[in-house]
Design goal:
This is glucose-6-phosphate isomerase. It catalyses: alpha-D-glucose 6-phosphate = beta-D-fructose 6-phosphate. Belongs to the archaeal-type GPI family. The chain is mostly beta strands and 194 residues long. It has one domain: Jelly Rolls. It has two helices and 16 strands. The strands form five sheets. It has a six-stranded antiparallel beta sheet. Strands 11-8-9-16 form a four-stranded mixed beta sheet. A two-stranded antiparallel ribbon has the order 4-5. β2 and β3 form a beta hairpin. The N and C termini lie far apart (42 Å).
Length: 194
């Protein structure tokens, strides 16, 4: 088994989907972890899970690490969110800042420290990125490096908004598990209630 390659299956993604029982494809995306000098590569399938576009599981970084993505092929949407803090404890259900960023081939996306991030493929073909997440240099499986914190995303069943295909266009649906969002930039996307 190659520790540098991993895929996220539908079964593994069910914890963060708007509708985990919707019909879909078996694999959502694939990851190749670089070594200390290389970049990581991620490839998303195109399509939807019910109405929700294929996306990554999403995670926060443990500590103050940042991350840069280079969009090599395709187009999509990046969801970035920073948790509100009570004392020194981040709150999973309260977001200080939420941002939607459109990403296209040739773009670079910077993820600041303490921002959770999830990338969504809204295009008709693969979405392919390279990133400089150094988690590949540490222990843990390629699909879930120990430096990445997936639990808050799992606890909330995804990010503060889901990205769905509505009338043929990317549209947002609020995740009702979040109690509040202090500041949000929705990138011009409409919001619908289902």
């Amino acid at each position: 088994m190659n520790k540098r390659f991993a895929q996220r299956t539908h079964t593994e993604m069910k914890d963060v989907l708007m509708d985990p029982n919707a019909p879909t494809l078996n694999e959502h995306y694939y990851m190749i972890r670089g070594d200390n000098e290389d970049r990581n590569i991620t490839v998303w399938e195109s399509g939807t899970v019910g109405d929700e576009y294929v996306k990554t599981y999403g995670h926060y970084h443990r500590g103050d690490g940042d991350e840069t993505y280079w969009i090599l092929f395709g187009r999509g949407i990046a969801l970035l969110q920073k948790r509100a803090v009570e004392g020194e404890t981040p709150l999973s259900d309260s977001i200080e800042e939420f941002t939607v960023t459109h990403i296209n081939q040739g773009d670079m996306l910077f993820v600041p420290p303490r921002f959770g991030h999830c990338l969504v493929n809204t295009g008709p073909s693969f979405l392919v990125t390279a990133d400089n997440n150094v988690a590949h240099a540490q222990e843990g499986p390629a699909s879930a490096p120990v430096e990445n914190d997936y639990e808050p995303i799992k606890e909330m069943r995804g990010f503060a908004y889901y990205v769905i295909q509505h009338n043929g266009e990317p549209t947002l649906v609020k995740n009702s598990r979040y109690k509040n969002i202090q500041h949000e930039d929705l990138g011009g996307l409409p919001v619908v209630e289902l």
